Amino acid sequence: xxxxxxxxxxxxxxxxxxxxxxxxxxxxxxxxxxxxxxxxxxxxxxxxxxxxxxxxxxxxxxxxxxxxxxxxxxxxxxxxxxxxxxxxxxxxxxxxxxxxxxxxxxxxxxxxxxxxxxxxxxxxxxxxxxxxxxxxxxxxxxxxxxxxxxxxxxxxxxxxxxxxxxxxx
Length: 169
What we know:
This protein has helices spanning 51-60, 64-72, 78-82, 89-102, 106-122, 124-131, 136-152, 159-166, and strands spanning 24-25, 28-29. By secondary structure, it is mostly helical. It has a two-stranded antiparallel sheet with strand order 1-2. β1 and β2 form a beta hairpin. The longest helix has 17 residues, at 106-122. The radius of gyration is 24 Å and the shape is elongated. 21% of the residues are buried. The mean pLDDT is 83.
């Protein structure tokens, strides 16, 4: 009967390079693929904890309307926790491109409005900083997005988002 050697979780990912009869085949060393990082839990379906998790989940959705619908499932108060440290300018533009593409449908436009208001209210400093890196083309897209949303509903509700995204006072 062979004795099974137990390994702690900390040593699980470290390869064993000791010479043994099963470690060699034909004079060449055969190594087993080993993950040097301890196992982590990938949460699917849960709320993202930070901008990196949000960006990763957005990449899973191919169509702009799917991205907006997924963003709409995030509670309004969660955006302040997600972007408490920082908001990546590229992630912001990805979100805005999806929102711009989705506003043609009235139900998606309502979700876009709610997301913009939640982000502007929850993390104004992070939003303003990320928006400051926008190119003139991106600012034009944001202007078009905000104008379309303001024409369809309450203009005052989007005033903070307009101020932060476009730098207007």
